[in-house]
What does this fold into?
Amino acid sequence: MYCQKCGHENSDRALQCAACGEILVPVTKPPMDTLPPAAPYAPARTHVVGPPNHLVWAILVTLFCCLPGGIVAIVYAAQVDSKFMAGDVAGAQYASDQAKLWSWISAGSILVIAAGYFLLVMAAVISGGSQ
Ligand SMILES: [Zn+2]
It folds into this structure.
């Protein structure tokens, strides 16, 4: 460690400076006044683009498939921009994630329903053909 008084480099286990005799105090962290002040996070809203609101996907899945999941997606999508403009970046990101999630859930349920319908038709065809 370096002597705080004269700057002489001493052994890490040295208790006293070999050059000037100063008592060496291990420094575990820098003094508070040397740390730069934490700059408050202030996004420049005219230049920063918020999280994607996934509104298009939310509307599409609502129109073409599952109204309940699509409505949830639209509700979250509508919150993204308003929250971001209000400075709630974390809330906007959360709403964005939820909008995407519910869009995927809705889109996924289309496939499940379609597959179920297909199996139902196949079962009807098979059972009908065996009679
Ligand atoms: Zn010294």
